Amino acid sequence: MNSSACGTSSSECPQERKKVSTKAETFEFQVEARQLLQLMIHSIYSNKDVFLRELISNASDALDKLRLEKLRGTELRADTSDLHIAIEADRDRRTLTVRDNGIGMTHEEVVDLIGTIAKSGTAKLLQELKEAKDSAASQDLIGQFGVGFYSGFMVADKVTLVTRHATQTSGTRWESDGQGTYTIETVEDAPQGTAVTLHLKPEDAEDRLFDYTSDHKIREIVKRYSDFITWPIRMATGKKAADSSEAAGAEKSGDGGESPDSAANADSAPGAETLNSMKALWARSREEVSDDEYHEFYKHISHDWNDPLETIRMQAEGTFEYQALLFIPSVAPPDLFLRERKRGVQLYVKRVFIMDDCEDLMPEYLRFVKGVVDAQDLSLNVSRETLQQDRQIQLMRRRLVKKLLATVKDMMSGDAERYATFWKQFGRAVKEGLLDDFENRDAILEICSFASTHDAEKPVTLRQYIDRMKDGQQHIYYMTGESRTVIENSPHMEAFRAKGYEVLLLTDPIDEMWVGSVPEFDGKAFQSIAKGQVDLDTEEEKKEVEAERERLQKEFGDLLSWMTTALGEKVKEVRLSSRLTTSPACIVGDTYDMTPALENMFRAMGQDMPQVKRILELNPTHPLVTGLREAHASGGETEALAETAELLHGMALLAEGGELTDPQRFITLLADRLQRTL
């Protein structure tokens, strides 16, 4: 289950349910989910305090969503006059309840979301957990998959959840001991929202299981992890949980349009203490906020358990005002390249939450960025549809993007190690911006890194490549392919290696696409070494070899014409090569031809792509090619020569990692030739 999904829920503690209308049904966890749950309970976390942070975070999400539905005019069966989070500890019963009066969950949502753990990623998570070398790595992996609700089982023998959705009259009760089954039943007259009650395990100092009914311990955890939550977090003082819950329920401190900050100034209910300051971090000066506070806020909004790689603050004044607090994660989320991923930052208007994942504030290629943008002049009723047309949103987006790219550029020059982490985690996504963000294309190219023949381990920037270019070099040479090994062993590399030219090795699928639409960088054109004619000779060298080239062209003219005809169904042309030094032949494309890999990508997406004929280049100094020329000139057996030409073409195709159109025929011809040599 996704922790944010659980956060859409809300409810009251199980003791408050009035009547059960249906019999409880018992269900079994999925096998993988049961294994994951046992790992979480017994061996994952060293710091078990974080369970309370996760439950509070979920409750805060539920309150945000209820306020948003109220602003949208949704008809609710909910009191929104005093939205808050309540923590109730009962030392006698050894229970701890975290409750909110937020949006709540329907019965179907409980079955679908609470009843399963990380539905789409459980198998992958289990495998990665087995490969993790220590508990810290395991904890990071757990955080990525968003199963924070189940962290309650670290400290509890049993977890009970009671929830009622704000549009419904009846609620749902879920309960499990984490051993393999859970029960679900319908609860009539359940209170609005969600309550999660933990039946706590005994204290165990050795296992770092503290007394989570202690007021002091609860205050410590809330202050450390959740002080910034914009809703009041209240704890009953001096009374049993049942008494304090009645008092909290009787509180009224304003109407439904009141902002969280104004609610912060309201008096707490009798016998209840507000534990958090509720100060919006993005509205406070940098000097007032510690790095730890920023990191905890990031974890709250992202449901990531790792500290962010970079924190970015922005404040704009003038024509229109807004504040932004953005974070670059240190680890890519597991859904970064999934279609159903969410992207964008949270949008607030005058500190009132409006929407999660505001896509119009952040382009697709920066979808990993998390944070908050708080605008002062937008309507509280703004919708996703009107956002697309809003001039202020578009202007904010432009400024946010420029600030993010500039931050990464500063990171590149000022902290190479952190930049390397950024590029390793998010480089593939960032390069997508080269296809559609024309305004920032140069800025994106400035922060890109690529593998190259200059260094076997360390990637290079385009600026570094240009600084190392040879005198008179006019192009940035590159080659795309499935892997570094495939590219380095390609015949196309031979002349470049011999003359010492650096070549960029582009192996990401996105590289096949952007190189065709980005013409140059800093005045230097990109040039594929597998396309068009390649001429690496200087003007002096050209004069020296011009006569030799003319001689070879005349000498091989008949063979080239014959092979072009013989292989006509497979190639566009057969010509002599200036890029080969040791291989007999290679396959190249015309300057503007689509690469075979890109053709296959489009076909995989269901597009009907015509087969592009490519060019076969021959190495006139290779014994196989010179022998073929001599056999053709002497009038050798036509069929045998045609088969040799076909084999030569197949070898060139395989050398570049291509696929044969008829592998069985190639094997038959090759076996026949080998047999003749015995």
Automatic annotation (TrEMBL):
Its main location: cytoplasm. CDD domains: HATPase_Hsp90-like. Residues 47-204 form the Histidine kinase/HSP90-like ATPase domain. Residues 240-270 are annotated as: Disordered. SUPFAM superfamilies: ATPase domain of HSP90 chaperone/DNA topoisomerase II/histidine kinase, HSP90 C-terminal domain, Ribosomal protein S5 domain 2-like. Residues 601-678 are annotated as: C. Residues 259-270 have a biased composition (Low complexity). It is found in: Cytoplasm. It holds the Pfam family HSP90. Molecular chaperone. Has ATPase activity. Homodimer. This is Chaperone protein HtpG. It comes from Streptomyces pactum.
